[in-house]
Design goal:
This protein has two helices and 17 strands. With about 325 residues, the chain is mostly beta strands. This is Type IX secretion system PorP/SprF family membrane protein.
Length: about 325
């Protein structure tokens, strides 16, 4: 039990924030500059279970919501209707694509991230402003602020030594609440996007246990993302992208993604985390108010013990409220 608890504490040091596989369909979760990017109120609910079958494995639940303010996008023309059998995200759509009008966006995020007896939660609100740079190019900048908290329920830990140095003999719940701040920028057009963001901007000490060995510092997490869209025939859009994640005193993490979307109904995707693992993804736009997606990860990191290399499930359910143009899939986040 002692070794298992130490492993969880070390994992908390290395993975201070949750991991996500499907950030490609909800980049707002890592960059507040996407707040209010679409024409509608975007709601996402997600559940992620890592290392399936391993007791105390990480589990993440989140809810995000964001909406535009003062956004004035219209269809390409008053008579632009979808033609049955044709791809609504086909060549003509992208030729007629125009940058979004300048507008504001507001949003909120709730995240709960649990690993064994260690629980982290985040509650933030966000704001972004979107500015047109050219007929097809937008730049947005945003920030999010709120609180993050950490708890260790020491009363539920069964130790052979009741004064185990890992928890210093404490048997009650240990708590820590800190301010949370993140910021980012996002550049987007009809054929590419690029962004950079920072979470946990304010470095802070987190001392939940008596032993210096298990004290940690909350450090900034930097995310740099870019992607490109190209047509593979009349019916399919292919969207390769890359994300680089930097955490001080840790190796640089690189994700390579690809997503292939058929019309605006369903998509398939893959993710390769260099030296970490890979994932398969799929999503379906059920209607203009509901979509769902699923991913399965396989971990092969040399930093994880063998029993931590089990599969990971992640599901995301999306709701599109106030979708006055009936979009089945996002116009700006593709």
């Amino acid at each position: 039990m002692f070794a298992w608890f130490c492993c969880l504490l070390m994992h908390m040091k290395a993975q201070q924030r949750p991991h996500y596989t499907q950030y490609i369909i909800n980049p707002y979760i890592i960059n507040p500059a996407l707040t209010g990017i679409e024409n509608y109120t975007d709601i996402k609910l997600s559940y992620r279970s890592q290392w399936v079958g391993f007791p105390g494995a990480p589990q993440t639940v989140y809810a995000t919501v964001h909406t535009p303010i003062g956004k004035d996008d219209y269809r390409n023309s008053p008579t632009s209707f979808e033609v049955p059998g044709e791809n609504p995200r086909g060549k003509q759509y992208w030729e007629d694509y125009t940058a979004a009008t300048p507008h504001h966006g507001v949003g909120a995020t709730l995240i709960n991230y649990k690993t064994g007896y260690i629980n982290r939660y985040f509650a933030t609100v966000s704001y972004a402003y979107h500015l047109g740079l050219s007929p097809k190019l937008n730049l947005s900048a945003g920030f999010a602020g709120g609180i993050s908290g950490t708890t260790i329920d020491a009363s539920k830990i069964e130790l052979a030594n009741p004064v185990d140095p890992a928890i210093g003999g404490v048997t009650q719940e240990l708590r820590s609440i800190k301010p949370e701040l993140s910021a980012g920028v996002w550049l987007y057009s009809d054929v590419f996007f690029a962004g950079i963001s920072a979470q946990q901007i304010i470095p802070q000490k987190m001392n939940l246990v008596s032993s210096d060995l298990y004290r940690s510092t909350l450090v900034p997490h930097i995310f740099a993302t870019t992607g490109y869209r190209f047509a593979a025939g009349d019916d399919v859009n292919v969207l390769p992208s890359v994300m680089v994640r930097y955490i001080p005193s840790m190796p640089v993490f690189v994700d390579v993604n690809v997503k292939a979307q058929y019309h605006d109904r369903f998509w398939l995707g893959g993710n390769y985390r260099i030296k970490e693992g890979f994932a398969a993804m799929a999503g379906f736009n059920i209607s203009n108010t509901l979509n769902v997606s699923y991913s399965y990860d396989v971990n092969n990191s040399k930093y994880l013990l063998q029993y931590m290399q089990r599969g990971t499930h992640e599901i995301v359910i999306g709701f599109l409220l106030g979708n006055k143009y009936g979009d089945l899939c996002p116009r700006r986040v593709w």
